[in-house]
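Issue 218. Parser rejects a valid record. Input:
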Amino acid sequence: MPDVAPEAISDAGFVVDVALGVVGESISVAAMLVRGAAKWTPLRARDAWRPAHLPARHQLASPATELARRGAQHREWASGHLDREMDRWIPVLAEMVVSRLDLTGLVIRHVDLDAVIHHVDLVAVVEDVIVTIDLPAIIRESSGSMASGTVRGARMTGIAVDDAISRSLERLRSRRRSPGTPASLVEAP
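Output the parser choked on:
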């Protein structure tokens, strides 16, 4: 850890650092005391906590029981607080880590995609997609519009054919007529 000169830190930062230093040292001392006490045989014996020759209020078990109760409360609070903080920070930290990873490369190197594909029920996926997008309705709608478009196109083609036939017949009629022939003779069957 780099050493930072106290002058380079704001007043608030300095106070926070002092508090963290005190807490850190307190935890270190407490851990050392717990390790030492756990190894000391007389403290591990129940008789040492409740000696028969002392009244109950002077036995070590009375203050120890109260300290244990308070310790359990602190432990429960710390555990709950830690859970809440983990719920808050783990997603943020995971996002930071994941944003720095080449996930595609990791998947390509470590996942057998062929095996994954063989485990996928493609028929079920396709059926789900068809149901989700309502493919039958899309086909009905597009077929209806295609059919009406086709009918409209056929009608327009029929009209154009009728016009073309009419023009052709008109030209034929005009050719068959001679300049002095009455129209009633040409048109008669």
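Fixed in the parser; the record now loads. The radius of gyration is 47 Å.
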